[in-house]
Design goal:
The protein is α/β, with parallel strands linked by helices and 105 residues long. The chain has one domain (4-94): 3-Layer(aba) Sandwich (Oxidized Rhodanese, domain 1), CATH 3.40.250. It has five helices and five strands; from the N terminus they run E-H-E-H-E-H-E-H-E-H. Strands 1-5-4-2-3 form a five-stranded parallel sheet. The longest helix has 12 residues, at 65-76. The model has no long low-confidence stretch (mean pLDDT 95). InterPro entries: GlpE_sulfurtransferase, Rhodanese-like_dom, Rhodanese-like_dom_sf, Thiosulphate_STrfase_CS.
Length: 105
């Protein structure tokens, strides 16, 4: 099982169809700024909360490293159609996109 890397400019398509956006950074990083609509599920809690990640989810972190680890782990458990946001929130911002601050998605 594998996952697919997603460029930041491709994320809007997945947002429009209602894909779950899962930010795997720690809560303090998440509240400093995250992709609109993303919910926080820290990588450090993923094993205990893996059932909260549906098939087709887009995994996000700061640069794409932790989210690729999360995607690989979940794909190994049999999750289907997972995506990893390459460049993470930094890549999102480099494209001129805004982040949401605080603890709301």
């Amino acid at each position: 099982m594998t996952y697919t890397d997603l460029f930041p400019n491709e994320l809007d398509i997945h947002r429009r169809v209602g894909a779950a956006l899962i930010d795997v950074r720690e809560p303090d990083e998440y509240t400093q700024g995250h992709v609109p609509g993303a919910i926080n599920l820290p990588l450090s809690e993923l094993q205990a909360r893996e059932a909260e990640v549906p098939d087709g989810a887009v995994l996000i972190c700061a640069s794409g490293n932790r989210s690729s680890q999360a995607a690989a782990y979940l794909a190994g458990l049999g999750r289907q159609n997972l995506k990893n946001l390459m460049g993470g929130t930094f890549g999102w911002m480099r494209e001129g996109r805004d982040l949401v601050t605080g603890d709301q998605p």
